Fold this sequence. Notes:
Strand content: under 5%
Helix content: over 70%
Structural class: mainly alpha
Radius of gyration: 23 Å
Amino acid sequence: xxxxxxxxIIVAIILALVGGFVEAVNxxxxxxxxxxxxxxxxxxxxxxxxxxR
Length: 53
C-alpha cells in the first residue's frame, strides 16, 4: 500500500510541475505576441512619420 501511495504522490508532483510549465509557456507566448504587435505598430508609426519628411 505504501508503494502505491508513493507512486501516486510522485505522479501528482510530476503533473503539477508539467501544468506549471505549460501555464508559464502559455503566459510567455501571450507576452511575446503582445510585444510583437507593439513592435509592428512602432515600426509602422516610424515608417509613416519618416515618409512625411
